[in-house]
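Changelog note: in this version the structure field was regenerated for every chain. One regenerated record is shown below for reference.
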Amino acid sequence: MQRLILWLITSSLCSFAVAGCSTKQLINASPQAAFYRLQRAAEERPALKANAHGLYIAPVKLATYLQRSQMVQRTGPYRYQFQEYQRWAEPLAENIRRLLQQALQQQLPQARIYADNRFQTGSWTLELDVGRCNATPTGVELSLDWRLSPPAAANGNALTGSVHRQWPTAPKATAWVKQLSQGLTALSRHIGQKWARHLKPSDQS
């Protein structure tokens, strides 16, 4: 009888040990989410002059389907797929805003570029409305409208523009993020050039 009880206890312990190992292996084998951030692309270009003008980057507007942590891939004309294991490390709108702030500040070291929700009177305002910022079957695409408005006290005209681009990339998240980072950095360069040219010559000296 004692041998039977001992055998049952030993068998139970072995079963628990095997089940524990199987569970641990299953957890280790499960897909793990990876997290990504857009980063300003390095550029070796001369700085532009904008004197001590201020430029406020307003909160970025995103299309509703982009307002999520998962990366989005357009897989067909009418179909989108949310990448459950490829995620943004922070809200995409905030990431884009920070990238633009860093890129513009590098381009225009004499200007005051800020994106901390503390609008300052007398500053220009940059607004972005992003319609697409996602992967495609062959790469990535970026579509947005931007508006650069002068201070309320100034009587100048706003500068506006649009971007509708697609780029081929390798079919992986790191390639998607790298190309979108480069595309947004190029956009900031374009906006910075238009802003610097628009300022009065006396303001740029």
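Spot check on this record: The first helix runs from residue 2 to 29. The chain has a mean pLDDT of 83.
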